């Protein structure tokens, strides 16, 4: 797993070498100290860190460098699947692009799969092959990245995408921003039926009675909505 906050997810009392080497220690993935150090330095090189950084502590690095340390730690056990919990949201915009591009490069080199959790829809579209949209902890729409962005079907997805800024004044003026009304229900006291119905302009009595299940509407595009 790669965590959201690169400042609190690294132990300040451990050197970079020990942080990256901890998964190797736990799972006993080396036969000698020399092999351990070789693996650590290889992981550091893979994420763009210099070998001379190995003896330093986390507080000596920038946010982007700290996140690279966290990524190297996640890669230490040679995973097939990594959960990325908003891994760039705490970073400056200029650094976000570098880290996202690095994620893509690592995927090409290692063949690793990501579950990339994020709120920034532009980043989500850039990095994702397939996107799932969630509302109050439930998936309401799943589709390939281009399909979902070009043909959103759930009212919540449509509203989210209407808020994405487009750097073209003509397109921006022609677009209509869909602003949701009402308050977000408490996850502790979920409404009956569809959780989104209290903010949906298409809601009917059926939405209050029954919670829709994900339904395949073609091309691997799944939507949980009674409105067709």
Secondary structure layout:
Blueprint: H1 16-26, H2 33-46, H3 63-75, E1 81-85, H4 93-110, E2 113-117, H5 121-127, E3 130-135, E4 138-144, H6 145-150, H7 155-162, H8 169-174, H9 205-209, E5 215-216, E6 222-223
Parallel strand pairs: 1-2
Antiparallel strand pairs: 3-4, 4-6, 5-6
Give a quick set of tags describing it.
12% strand, 9 helices, single chain, four-stranded antiparallel beta sheet, alpha+beta, 228 residues, two-stranded parallel sheet
In short:
By secondary structure, the chain is of the alpha+beta class. The chain has helices at 16-26, 33-46, 63-75, 93-110, 121-127, 145-150, 155-162, 169-174, 205-209, and strands at residues 81-85, 113-117, 130-135, 138-144, 215-216, 222-223.
Structural write-up:
With 228 residues, the protein is an alpha+beta fold. The protein contains 9 helices and 6 strands; from the N terminus they run H-H-H-E-H-E-H-E-E-H-H-H-H-E-E. Helix 1 (16-26) crosses helix 2 (33-46) and helix 2 packs across helix 3. The longest helix has 18 residues, at 93-110. It is elongated and about 65 Å long. The model has no long low-confidence stretch (mean pLDDT 94).
The averaged pLDDT comes out at 94
**Order of secondary-structure elements:** HHHEHEHEEHHHHEE
Silhouette: elongated
- The number of distinct β-strands equals 6
Enumerate the spans where pLDDT stays under 50 for 5 or more consecutive residues: none
Helix content: 25-40%
Our estimate of the beta-strand percent is 5-15%
* Through-space gap between termini: 37 Å
Number of helices: 9
Rg (C-alpha, Å): 21 Å
Oligomer: single chain
Main beta sheet: strand number and arrangement? 4 strands, antiparallel
The computed structural class is: alpha+beta
Strand arrangement across the biggest beta sheet = 3-4-6-5
